[in-house]
Structure formats: structure tokens, C-alpha cells
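Hey, can you fold this one?
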Amino acid sequence: MSFNRKPGGSADSGPLIGSVLSDLPPHISNTPAEPGEATGTMLLFVSTYCSHCIDLLPHIEAMTRRHPTFSFRLFSTGDEDDHRSMVEYFGWTFPIYSLDQSDMEAYFAVNYLPFAILVDDSGKVAAKGVIYNADEYEQLVKDYARHALA
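Sure. Predicted structure:
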């Protein structure tokens, strides 16, 4: 299985739209946002060995600034030193969790990277997809907004 493929079968990756993420790895915080604080949660999955993921890293801060009402969480195959370096370099303030690729698949059904899952404020998956750049992230946010209006 390759985590660096272009989209194709990637539409089937990730949890089903409308499903609830309930079984998270033990070291992952599932603390909900305070009422009125966040409209949803963005989960972004990357690998330190994926060129598309590495190309996306410099755009993450702008993505979080454009949508400050989302609670943002990054899941990376990197270790603590990798994450500390990323935080220092990019100035990120959101949580970063270490998760190997097999756990990304086991807990979140993520088979392709970089992959994003938008969860609404009720805890249901509202949008998901492979994202290679900020434009694809914006398309995912539009999908999320369509779900919220439905």
C-alpha cells in the first residue's frame, strides 16, 4: 500500500461521512471544544517520508489562520524531535500527535497521505479527502459547509 499516490481510490479512504470518531488511540486527546469556541475539528494526517506531505507543511499555518473557528490537530509519523523542529520553524500552536501509518489506517481508515478529516461540532465526519495544497483544503472546507447546511 502506498501513502504517496495521487487521488484515485483515495475517495474511499478515511471514515464514512456522517460517522462518529469514537475509538481514538489512547494518547490522543478527545477533549471537545468549549461551546462557541470551535465549529469543528480539522484532523490532518502527514508522514515525514511523504514528499506531498512535506510540501504541504509550509501552508498549514495559513490554512489554520483562514479558518480560526476550527480546532486543528496534526497527526504525523514524526517523533518528538521532528515535531519540536516543526513547531520552532513554522511557529505552530496546535497539537501534534505521533501516529504511525498502521495506526492511521487502524483508527481512522486513512490509506492515503496527506489526508484531512473535518469533524463537525457534534463529532460526526462532515468532509474528508486527500489535500496537496491550500486550494484543496479550501474545497474540503466548502464540502464541510455544504454538510453543515444540509
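The helical segments are 51-56, 60-66, 80-90, 101-108, 134-149. Let me know if you want another pass with a different chain boundary.
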